[in-house]
Write the structure tokens for this entry.
Amino acid sequence: MDIKTILKTSVAAGALMALAAPMTLAPVSSAEAGNEVGTNSKVKTTFGGRVHRSIMHIDDGQHDGIFQSDGQSANSEVWLSGSGQLTESVTLGAYLRWDIEKNAGGQAFDGADGDEATTSPGFGSKNEYITFNHKSMGKLTIGDHDEAGAGAPNLHYASLLYDTASAGAGIEFTTGANGAWSGVTVGAIWDDIDPGTTNVIRYDSPAFGGLGLAASLAQGGSASMKLSYAGTISGLSLKAAVQRTNAEGAGNDVMTSGSVAVKHSSGLSAHVGHGKTETSGTEIDAEYQTYGIGYAAKFNSLGQTDLYVIKHETEEAAADNAEADEITVGINQALDSVGGRIGMAYSQISYDDGLGTDINDIDVIYFETGFNF
């Protein structure tokens, strides 16, 4: 029995349990902040949003400049959520989320003279789904949401300003002392073997002894499954996940990935993750690994401070025998009184095209502040 057959059975069974069995449930999360609004007295409605602003100094080995944008992984966005008691044991929820249009939010150097060149990304739908949540039998999600395996290769305890090599994603690498354009951008060299967001039917089981199971079927046929764990072992907080996704010929036909993260009561944490694709029609199969350490403590009255060092590596994401590396050192300060944050990070991104080309490193100094409401 293959993964698609297993997932179809799992999702169908989850749907029947969520819709037919008696149940009770927690409302849909409204992310980091939000206030109750709305006129329908039968449901609880929440509105929320956040504004994240970043300032980046980027040096591609030949050009340098300062750019502004929203956050690199926590975008400026707004959301609406609602929940209501469908039966004594079942809660029905709904969620809408949008990225906000940015003025000059994209980063690039002009291909002619190397001056700063920006784009203005428009409003974008991020999520739109309905959930049937059962107290003891799990949750069924229908709509624009993460596939079941999402997040498995990148578990960590450190509070990062950005992850998976997202800083300066629009910047093109330069080659040699004269700085010729390579035709390859930072965003093109990474594949973290992490399934994304699409239209799905997804089932998430309740946690049993810290273990959880998720399964989804996506529009277009992609089938995804994840096994996860969160708990305490020998005084260490631990979380782990492994996923497998059959992407039905979408470039990464089969993606397998996972990660483990541990945290000590002292605030020290560490993580390691790995992933690999099996791609039909080509021998180029991307491979990914990440590892890092972090330290979290409360040094002031503002909130928790996180220090971290993270390494990402990808092979064959952009081309045969190509390799990419990124190392990031960062500090993130939580602003508990407003549910926001402020921090700085430095990243160096290296790329080898496998052809012996002298490709310059890209250095990014990143500052971000965020406000949630």
Q: What stands out?
A: The chain is about 5% helix and 55% strand. Confidence is low (pLDDT under 50) at residues 15-33. The radius of gyration is 22 Å.
